[in-house]
């Protein structure tokens, strides 16, 4: 899961030689300012303030086993006073492939002796633990509701999508629990057992629901059964099956509007499909598309190209049970 964190800090570019200054304590002894019992921190260094900040973020990301990308925009302004200064305000966007709690930064520091820049990035452990706990609690509560909602009733195609989404969320919960353990092992206690239990319950219900979600296919305008074959393959890839007595019927039509000129023949395909629940008679899913024209020097060639476009779109987007 990708998360985006936005941070703003101020770097001053002064138009005259910098005044010598002592290094702050966090440069000399990071743990004195950010003790490990309370913070996850990293001291970054570089030839520029931005490079030092990026280095600090990279080190933090290793702690959480996450890939982090940093993007920034710089906005300049003049500050008035006894002496003029040009200030560069950097809006930093940190995007990660894993959930990360909010990062904080010290002001950049430049060593007069070496010219090296330093920035310390830090995360408060209690705040980070709460960040991860709240996400885990939401995922587990949603999975609990999904399981409870299936009790004592006929499971429908919509329930397949609900359970599949719960399964995906629980898979994400494993990574979040690992991150929680990295900041607080005590806070992580109990989550592993809950995740394991719910994965078993959701998995069993999903298997039952999937077995009950059988389909029959009856599409008009599909004389060669090309589209029916494609839909059957799509359903199979989603763990759903096709049967002559399937509960759900994929019905509707595929059209090819033909036109011709001195260049060749053009076919414009269209698809209007519905999934009907045989138990209730209700339409539970629809797929309606009108495509661009496809041309060829022969009618057969134009129709083949047009149907290929329909097939491509179906494989990418036909999802009667939800999901991606």
Explain this structure to me?
This protein has helices spanning 25-28, 30-33, 49-63, 125-149, 157-183, 185-188, 191-212, 226-237, 299-317, and strands at residues 3-13, 39-46, 68-79, 85-96, 104-105, 109-110, 117-124, 214-220, 241-242, 248-260, 265-277, 283-290, 294-296. It has 324 residues and is of the alpha+beta class. Helix 4 packs antiparallel against helix 5 (157-183), helix 4 (125-149) packs parallel to helix 7 (191-212) and helix 8 packs parallel to helix 9. It is elongated.
How would you briefly describe this protein structure?
This protein has 324 residues and is an alpha+beta fold. The chain has nine helices and 13 strands. The strands form three sheets. Strands 8, 9, 10, 11, 12 and 13 form a six-stranded mixed sheet that branches. Strands 2, 5, 6 and 7 form a four-stranded antiparallel sheet that branches. A three-stranded antiparallel sheet has the order 1-4-3, covered by helices on one side.
The pLDDT mean sits at 83
Beta-strand content bin: 25-35%
Helix content: 40-55%
List low-confidence stretches: 1-20, 71-78, 87-93
Radius of gyration: 29 Å
What best-fitting shape do the alpha-carbon axes yield? elongated
Number of helices: 9
How many DSSP-defined strands?
13
Q: Indicate the structural class.
A: alpha+beta
What is the chain-wise order of helices and strands? Answer: EHHEHEEEEEHHHHEHEEEEEH
Termini gap:
14 Å
**Biggest pleated sheet:** 6 strands, mixed
Notable features of this structure?
324 residues; alpha+beta; 6-stranded mixed beta sheet; 4-stranded antiparallel beta sheet; 9 helices; 13 strands; elongated; disordered N terminus
């Amino acid at each position: 899961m990708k998360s985006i964190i936005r941070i703003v800090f101020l770097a001053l570019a002064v138009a005259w030689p910098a005044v010598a200054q002592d290094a702050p304590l966090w440069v000399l002894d990071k743990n004195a300012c950010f003790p490990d019992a309370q913070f996850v921190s990293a001291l970054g260094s570089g030839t520029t303030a931005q490079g030092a900040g990026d280095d600090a973020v990279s080190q933090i990301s290793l702690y959480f086993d996450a890939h982090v990308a940093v993007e920034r925009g710089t906005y300049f302004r003049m500050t008035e006073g006894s002496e003029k200064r040009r200030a560069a305000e950097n809006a930093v966007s940190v995007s990660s492939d894993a959930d990360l709690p909010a990062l904080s930064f010290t002001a950049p520091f430049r060593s007069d002796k070496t010219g090296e820049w330093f920035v310390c990035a830090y995360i408060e452990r209690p705040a980070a633990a709460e960040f991860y706990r709240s996400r885990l609690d939401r995922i587990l509560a949603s999975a609990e509701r999904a399981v409870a909602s299936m009790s004592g009733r006929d499971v429908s195609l919509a329930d397949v999508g609900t359970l599949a989404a719960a399964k995906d969320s629980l898979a994400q919960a494993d990574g979040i629990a690992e991150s929680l353990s990295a900041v607080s092992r005590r806070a992580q206690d109990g989550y592993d057992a809950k995740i394991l239990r719910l994965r078993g319950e959701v998995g069993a219900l999903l298997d039952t629901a999937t077995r009950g979600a059988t389909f029959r296919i009856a599409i008009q305008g599909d004389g060669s059964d090309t589209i029916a074959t494609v839909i059957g393959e799509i359903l199979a890839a989603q763990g759903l099956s096709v049967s002559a007595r399937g509960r759900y019927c994929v019905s509707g039509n595929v059209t090819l509007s033909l036109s011709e000129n001195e260049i060749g023949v053009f076919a414009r395909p269209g698809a209007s499909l519905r999934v009907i629940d045989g138990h209730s008679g209700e339409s539970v899913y629809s797929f309606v598309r009108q495509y661009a024209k496809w041309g060829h020097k022969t009618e057969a060639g134009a129709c083949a190209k047009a149907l290929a476009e329909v097939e491509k779109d179906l494989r990418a987007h036909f999802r009667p049970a939800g999901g991606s």
